[in-house]
């Protein structure tokens, strides 16, 4: 059980906390904390590779191509935000299950 606890709670949450700390320092500008930017950057590595369909810029000029790629990244970040919440909920569930198994 401790291997599952380490694999599904401690390591992912440790990596998530470190990544959130880096994102916080990356997104603070002029002593202003922009929580939306932080949340998007935290979700980026979790959601970009889970996108099933990438919109490919075809027959666009440079501005259209940049816009399509920006939309791809934003959608990936939004998917990543949901995945981050899922990881946190899963970690809480596994932790509760572990403590209940210790008590019984």
Explained architecture:
The chain has 104 residues and is mostly helical. Helix 1 (2-27) packs antiparallel against helix 3. A two-stranded antiparallel sheet has the order 1-2. It has one domain (2-103). The two termini are 14 Å apart. Helix content is 78%, strand content 4%.
Uncertain spans? none
Query: Helix-strand pattern, N to C?
Result: HEEHH
Overall pLDDT: 86
Strand order of the largest sheet: 1-2
| End-to-end C-alpha gap | 14 Å
Q: Largest sheet at a glance?
A: 2 strands, antiparallel
Number of domains: 1
Structural class: mainly alpha
Rg computed from alpha carbons, rounded to a whole number of angstroms = 18 Å
Question: How much of the residues is beta strand, in percent?
Answer: under 5%
Count of runs of 4 or more consecutive helical residues: 3
Tertiary shape: elongated
**Percent helix:** over 70%
Number of strands: 2
């Amino acid at each position: 059980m401790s291997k599952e606890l380490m694999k599904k709670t401690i390591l992912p949450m440790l990596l998530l906390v470190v990544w959130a700390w880096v994102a916080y320092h990356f997104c603070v500008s002029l002593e202003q904390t922009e929580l939306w930017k932080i949340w998007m950057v935290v979700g980026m590595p979790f959601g970009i590779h889970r996108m099933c369909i990438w919109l490919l810029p075809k027959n666009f000029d440079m501005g259209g191509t940049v816009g399509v790629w920006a939309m791809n990244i934003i959608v990936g970040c939004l998917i990543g935000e949901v995945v981050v919440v899922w990881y946190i909920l899963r970690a809480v569930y596994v932790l509760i299950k572990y403590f209940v198994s210790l008590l019984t």
